Amino acid sequence: MSVFDVLKERGFIQQTTHQEPLYELLEKEKNTFYIGFDPTADSLHAGSLLPIMAMAHMQRSGHRPIAILGGGTAMIGDPSGKTELRKMITQETINYNAARFKEQLSKFIDFSDGKALMVNNGDWLLKLNYIEFLRDIGSQFSVNRMLTADCFKSRLERGLSFIEFNYMLLQSYDFLVLFREYGCKLQMGGDDQWSNILYGADLIRRLEGKEAYGITFPLLTTASGRKMGKTEAGAVWLDPAKTSPYEYYQYWRNTDDRDVQRFLALYTFLPLDEVHRLGALKDQAINEAKKVLAFEVTKLTHGEAEAQKASAAATAFFGGSGNEQAMPSLALDRSELAKGIAIIDLIVLAKLADTRSEAKRLIIQGGITLNDVKIPDFNRMIGLADLKEDKILLRKGKKDYQVFKIA
Question: Residues near 273 by Cβ (< 8 Å), separated by ≥ 6?
Fold first, then answer.
């Protein structure tokens, strides 16, 4: 099966340029393609998984990925999908964040022996001579046409800065540089990048007289309307120091029933026959499909050993065996506990609430349990008598947990 068919059947493709020539290109040749990653944080997140998985499918079909880190464009910020100017970040921060990505991407992509590349557009963008850039690149763009692009139209009422207006030129120039340096003929990205991709392909056509192509992915939200990879507590990170493998597993385990089949197709390499079988399960049986989803995604991101630990911990806890191994845990000093710790302070320490007032509200609403017993009193003090086998299990609602172990 063509990789184009694989991506289409699994739900990756939203829009394409020149679909028939692109299909033929992917069938007949081994191509170099690129996807951009914005280094404005020190970790990729669950929302990054869709382009990462598409990249992995492409590589498995023999095509060469380029992961381009926006070390140059991040100095400006992409206006696409944003209602206001992004916060400026320093070059040092960008370089630090970019250095963290390759380790995470390497869980999905093989970078050995030139099978995939990682480049930083800061290597060429930060050296640009602005006058030469305007003459050679800026002259190829129509301002009237640019203003019809969705990424700009949505910002005109609130105000679009001139620095952001340059972003389309810079991303288009990235495509041109990668075409010239690496023979890259295809750019892939989220559907909010559609205009940028079109202008990049047009720039290549104007200056090189050759065709280039684009594919966009759908901008996913969950069935409940939440942006993919976001929770009440914030982003679900691929870095295990920011989101533990257990928490990561639980995020996928708690997928809405309506999303299970779609997420199995997008975020695992399971055969589609198996995806459809699992996705067709109903009522309580759908929980088995959710476990498969959680295990497979955690295995890809953190390795099979961590996925096994997270699965075993979840099974043990929900099965009532009391085994908290692999659950998120924090050390608690015995002498401090002997003095007594206010329950609201313990909740904040466990990061189940950001403030003491929020912790108090959670208790009043009946949302906090200690060792599986609901806490009714926000003045409650926690001491040595609350230990169970030198541990305290604190839970918010049904899904968020923290184990305290005595140091």
Answer: none
CB distance 51 to 14 below 8 Å: no
Do 9 and 153 reside in the same domain of the chain? yes
Total domains, the chain: 3
Domain of residue 310, CATH code: 1.10.240.10
CA–CA distance from 345 to each of 257, 337, 350, 378, 383 (Å)?
Answer: 35, 12, 9, 10, 13
CA distance 184 to 177: 9
Q: With pLDDT > 70 as the criterion, what percentage of the chain qualifies?
A: 90
Among 92-101, 152-161, 196-205, 209-218, which is the least confidently predicted range? 152-161
Residue holding tokens 């720039």? Answer: 203
Does residue 16 sit in the same domain as residue 133? yes
- Give 120-174 pLDDT, tens digit per residue: 998 999 899 988 998 899 888 888 788 777 777 766 767 677 777 788 899 999 9
Same domain for 98 and 147, yes or no, is yes
115 inside domain: yes
Report pTM.
0.77
- Taking the C-alpha atoms of residue 83 and residue 309, their distance in angstroms, rounded to an integer, is 41
Domain enclosing residue 140, as ranges: 3-217
List the Cα angle 126/65/170 in 5-degree steps. 25
Asked if 39 and 183 sit in the same domain, the reply is yes
* Residue in the block written with tokens 């640009």: 128
Contacts of 398 (CB under 8 A, 6+ apart): none
> What local confidence, expressed as pLDDT, does residue 77 receive?
59
Task: Tell me whether residue 223 is in a domain.
Answer: no
